[in-house]
Amino acid sequence: MGNSAEEYAAFEEKVKRTVYIDNLSPLVTDAVLKTALGQFGTVESVQFIPNYVEPKNIPQCALVVTQTEKQAKAIIFEMNNFPFMMSGMPRPVRALPAEVKMFADRPIKPGRRITCQWLDPSDRNFDVAQKLKEVTQRHAREASYLLQVNLNAKLFDCHGFRSINLVFFSKQNCVLIVEIQRYSLAQLQLEEEEKLAAEQSETLKTNYKKCEMLESLFSDGSHGRLAYRFNLKVTDD
Q1: Number of separate domains in the chain
Q2: Helices (H), strands (E): how many in the chain?
């Protein structure tokens, strides 16, 4: 019991040092986040939260564990009050304090017990249990249907469809088309991010070549000859 209490206390302390960040680019990696947030302190770990709603599993949310609670609060304050730059571009990200329920690997709280029993229709909790059963069954049906929608969306995407116009015969067909369009938008967003990343990489290479050229001019004395040719005054500063 003592070990469980200590483990949960350590977990609660970890939650206080964790920041929940969403609206992330699909191309963001843990290394990018660690570099971007390193100015506020030490980032111990980054855990992306899988997106089970969209047809593609794009990491758009993450839990960032810092070294101290003060560092976590600093990240939340800065990201919510000032433009946040990532890879040289402003990003509309949002930072919030993490909550216990956000951790899939959270330990069991000490003292918590789960009991199971059959309820008679005359029991005062029977109606509540019946509603919970109905909600669970509905969620199971929705999850099964969503998996089928994801499969259909991937099949449509494999055939190159981006927009589909069909006659809607049922509510399920409407939902299917909406999900396929959302899948197409997610793909479009990913393509735009890849294009932006390529442009930024090319700009970085160009700037690096310019720096190399300037360094070469100063190292071999060419800058002095150029200054003399164009009647310019060059100092060591």
Answers
A1: 3
A2: 6, 6
